[in-house]
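Predict both folds.
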Amino acid sequence: MATHQCVIAVAKRGTAQHAVQAARRQGARGATVLGGKGSSVFESRAKKLFGALLEPEKEIVLVVVEREKAEAVAEEIRRELDLDTPGKGIVFVFDISSVRGLTPLDALAEDDDS
C-alpha cells in the first residue's frame, strides 16, 4: 500500500496560494504550483483575439502528503476554493507508488539542534 498520496487541485489563476495555505492547515509541509491553460463546460468557449486562441489560465497545485492526511487536505482545499460551485475548479487524489527526497520532520529538528 502506498504511504503517500498526491492531492492535485486545478483552479483559476490567482487561487493557488489559498490552496497551499489550506493544505498547510491540514499538515502539508509544502506544495508545487504550476501554470496551465484550459477550460471546462462551465466556462465560455475559448475566445480569439487578433486570431490567437485565448484559453482561461489555471493554476495546478501538487501536494504530496502522508496517506492519512490526504483526504483532510483535499477537503480543506475544496472548502477554501469553494469547489462545490460549478466552474471553480477540481481537486483529486492519486496514490504515489514511491517517494524520494522527502526529509522526515524529525530529521530536520535534529539538524536544528546541531
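Second protein follows, with its predicted C-alpha cells after the sequence.
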Amino acid sequence: MANETTQVKRSSRKPEKMSDVLASFMSTTKDGGRVEQARVVPEWPALVGEQISAVTEPIMITRDGTLFVAVKTSSWMSELSLMEPQLLIAINEGRTAGKVARIHWRLMG
C-alpha cells in the first residue's frame, strides 16, 4: 500500500451551536413540528406557572396535538378543564409549528 496523506479541507465558517444546527435541520423535516410539540412536556412548569405545575404532570402529546396531563385531584381537574382555553393560548404563544390542540385531563393514579 502506498503511504497516502489525506488533507482535510478547513471551512472558513465559524462553529455553530449544536442546538442551532439541530433547530435548523428540524425545521426542514416533517417531524420538526412534532419535536416542537414534545417541548411542551419539559417546559410545562414555565408555561402554566408554579401553582398549576404543582398539581399536574404532563404525560405525553399525540401527533394530533392532544396533550395528556395527570392531575392530583378531581377538584383541580374540574378547574383546569374550565381554564383549558386560556391554557392553550399560553402554551401555544409564539409557536408556529407543533401547537397543542387540546388537553386531556386524567386523575393521577
